[in-house]
Every structure is written in structure tokens, then in C-alpha cells.
Amino acid sequence: MPASEPPTRFCFFRKGPLIILIGAATDLRSRKIPNWLTLSAVPVGLLLAYVFDGLSGLGYAFGAMLLALLIYFPLYALRAMGAGDAKLMAAVATFLGPLMWLHLFFAASLLGGLVAVLFTAAKGEFRNTLSKSVQILRQLAYFRAPFATDPTLDIRSPKSISLPHGAVIAIAWLFLYIAWVQFGFRLVRL
């Protein structure tokens, strides 16, 4: 067994889509990812990791969940992302493990950035969004929450421009799955 991750983790890579697809569908429909999905998926992912890979697998699944929360919780705290998005990624991480989850995170980040550029350009808001991006960086450099000075930077504001991140995660997972299965693509070799 490689030291990087348990061998059955790839099997879980094929099981995670159900959670991702339900999260994407509910995010597209209601712009919310329900707690019943994310909070029930976490113990299932942890239990499966333990059943198939013992304490080692449980450790990888728990570590992956913590990694997802470490990355997504600050975005939620800065009101740049919804709590459902953070919980969805944490739940999916329990199925994928840390290395595969990092692949998904990078793919979702790149795709999300591309979709955001296309979406804002289509709405005629690209220049305004670029200006707000500079404003966000300036506020963060002074350790201030960007939403405190501009309410439109708060994801909870009806005036903010937001994307259904659950759908972006689902599309990124699909591309990543094809890259893994069809082309053997890996950022990190297992």
C-alpha cells in the first residue's frame, strides 16, 4: 500500500458524485445546499473510510475534511462563499481523501474563476468586478473584512453577484473524473 493514501480511495472517488450532484441540483434550484445532505454525508464518508481502510483510512478522511474546512471556512467567514459550499466540500473530502480532494479544489477553483469571468462579462459587469477585486485585496491587506466597506461584496446581499458553487464543483468533478479515468491525469501520483 502506498504511503500517500489508502488504495480504496479511488473507489470512493466514484461514490462522491451522488453527493456532488444532489448539492449541485439543490444549489441551482434554490441557491442553497441543504444540511441534511452535507451533515449526513460526513459520517457516511468517515464510516466507509474506516470500514474499507481501518484507522488509516479514517485518518485520511478526517484529515481531508479538516483541509477542506481550513480552506473554505475563511471564505465563508469573509462572506465570499456560503456555508453550504464549505460543508459540501468538507463532506466530499471524506470520500476522496486529501490528495484527490486537492485535485477537485484546484479544478473547481480554476473553473469557478473562468465561469465568473464569463458570467460577469456577459452581464456587462466585468470592469466593475475587476475594480471590486482590487478593493477586496486592498481590504484584506489591511486585515479588514471587504463586506464591511461594501455590502455588495457580501454573498448574503441580494445586490451581490454570485454563482452556484455547487454546480461548479459538479462540473469540475466531471472533468477531473474524465481526466483521471480516461487519461490517467494526476497532479500528485498515488
Please provide a written account of the structure.
The chain is mostly helical. It has one domain (9-125, 161-183). It is 74% helix and 0% strand. It contains 7 helices and no strands. The longest helix is centred in the N-terminal third of the chain and has 43 residues, at 35-77.
Layout of secondary structure:
Blueprint: H1 9-13, H2 17-30, H3 35-77, H4 83-122, H5 126-141, H6 146-149, H7 165-183
Helix pairs in contact: 2-7, 3-4, 4-7
Shape: globular
Number of strands: 0
Radius of gyration: 17 Å
Low-confidence spans: none
| Percent of residues in beta strands | under 5%
- Major sheet: none
Helix fraction bin: over 70%
Order of helices and strands: HHHHHHH
Distance between the termini: 10 Å
Structural class: mainly alpha
> What is the arithmetic mean of pLDDT?
87
Number of domains: 1
> Can you count the helices?
7
Quickly describe the structure.
The chain is mostly helical. It is 74% helix and 0% strand.
List keywords for this structure.
190 residues; mainly alpha; 7 helices; 0% strand
